[in-house]
């Protein structure tokens, strides 16, 4: 008899990944499909069913006791629905009900991808041992999640800790969410690149205009590229400081593609954080890069599934 396992799904705009996960967070069986994000709702669900089908074909499936889903958001955990910005075919899509049906009636837990990454970093990663933490995903968007009193706290809708839409510039640009001066509008990868281009940065011969290319230029001393990352770092620092001031946190863990810039991001982030997080109880606040990498979504979804069984 196998020890109990959980099934985990990590659903994003590019890929749908699945795994059977042990109680120690080890990924025993994996499956993956590209997300048919430009197709209709049923085509996307078909890819989810294929991933689940591959997991269910494993002899280990009989040990699975629940399913955890970490999905691009927004999610509505109370309703069991998802409306991922980058999957237009899914709007208020009843994902929990559909996965429950496909997965032989196993109980299903749903969290947003920022909350999943947070649960993973707290369980096995950079926030391990910290009872009060904010974990951020800085990539195409900026998401996040909170750990309070030793437990990930997704909130009733599953979106608590969504730092990307804290306003850090009252008169700033209009954000697609409807607010102004959001962290995401300054610190996300596409916005780092856009700001650099607007201020005169030019890509190299390969024509790469991503935030990663801007990071390479910043590392080589390009002042416009450096300034774009410093602006992003200030926005992140202001959002982290506001959240830490509110919730009395001791660590912020930063992951996602933009964190791959390394010191180009983290040096000005730590510098700016000292300017914004000034109260005495925030002096212990540290910043660390995430360590769980691309498996964070699956490990975090598994953590949600395990919590369901307690």
TrEMBL record:
| Top-level lineage group | Bacteria
Q: Which family does the entry's similarity section mention?
A: Belongs to the ROK (NagC/XylR) family.
- What is the name attached to this protein's record? ROK family protein
């Amino acid at each position: 008899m196998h020890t109990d396992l959980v099934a985990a799904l990590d659903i994003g705009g590019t890929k749908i990944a699945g795994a059977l996960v042990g109680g120690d967070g080890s990924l025993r069986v994996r499956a993956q499909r590209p997300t048919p994000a430009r197709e209709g709702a049923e085509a996307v669900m078909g890819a989810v069913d294929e991933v689940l089908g591959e997991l269910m074909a494993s002899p280990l499936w009989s040990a699975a006791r629940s399913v955890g889903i970490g999905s691009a958001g927004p999610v509505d955990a109370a309703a069991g629905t998802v409306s991922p910005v980058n999957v237009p075919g899914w709007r208020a899509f009843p994902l929990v009900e559909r996965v429950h049906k496909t997965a032989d009636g196993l109980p299903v837990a749903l969290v947003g991808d920022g909350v999943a990454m947070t649960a993973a970093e707290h369980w096995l990663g950079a926030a391990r041992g910290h009872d009060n933490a904010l974990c951020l995903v800085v990539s195409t968007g900026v998401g996040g999640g909170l750990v309070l009193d030793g437990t990930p706290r997704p909130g009733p809708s599953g979106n608590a800790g969504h730092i990307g839409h804290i306003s850090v510039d009252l008169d700033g640009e209009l954000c697609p969410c409807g607010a102004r001066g959001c962290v995401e509008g300054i610190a996300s990868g596409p916005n780092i690149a856009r700001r650099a281009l607007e201020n005169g940065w030019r890509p190299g011969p390969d024509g790469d205009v991503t935030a990663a290319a801007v990071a390479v230029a910043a590392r080589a001393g390009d002042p416009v590229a450096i300034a774009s990352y410093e602006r992003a770092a200030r926005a992140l620092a202001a959002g982290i400081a506001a959240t830490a001031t509110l919730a009395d946190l001791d660590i912020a863990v930063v992951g996602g593609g933009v964190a791959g810039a390394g010191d180009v991001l983290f040096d000005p982030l730590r510098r700016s954080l000292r300017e914004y997080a000034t109260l005495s109880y925030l002096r212990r606040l540290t910043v660390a890069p995430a360590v769980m990498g691309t498996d964070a979504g699956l490990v975090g979804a598994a953590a949600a599934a395990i919590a369901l069984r307690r």
